[in-house]
Amino acid sequence: MNLLSVKLKIGDREYPMKVKPEEEERVRNAGKAINERLKTYREKFGIDDKEDLLAMVAFDATVARMKGEEEMVALDHHSEAKIETLDQLIQKTLS
User: Fold this and answer.
1) Region 33-48 average pLDDT
2) For residues 49 and 38, what is the distance between their CA atoms, to the nearest angstrom?
3) What is the DSSP string of 63-80?
4) Which residue range(s) make up the domain with 83?
């Protein structure tokens, strides 16, 4: 499988990595989003320490991911309940 060599600058550091061609845009967008969030926190809270800023971004990203996962589980349960109801109605109609 061909991998692309990509250098992402996050904060003030460059990170070389190899990515699948179909994931290059996503990886670059992720780097851009991290840098935007770093800038926002720096401006909003007046924090210049890179480790503190990165920790805040990591924390926010983790909370957002956990929220998304919880919402997906709730949606799955809701969908399953609807499908079960529809299945019961179909079975009742066919009987």
Assistant:
1) 94
2) 10
3) HHHHHHHHHHHHHHHHHH
4) 4-94
Compute the 3-state secondary structure of the chain and give helix, strand, coil in percent, each to the nearest 5. 75, 15, 10
Q: Is 81 helix (H, G, I), strand (E, B) or coil?
A: helix
E strand segments, the chain: 4-10, 13-19
The total number of structural domains in the chain stands at 1
Residues 38, 60: Cα–Cα separation, whole Å: 11
The one-letter code for the residue type at 16 is P
Q: Are 4 and 21 in contact (CB under 8 A)?
A: yes
Is residue 19 within 8 A of residue 32, CB to CB? The reply is: no
pTM of full prediction above 0.90: no
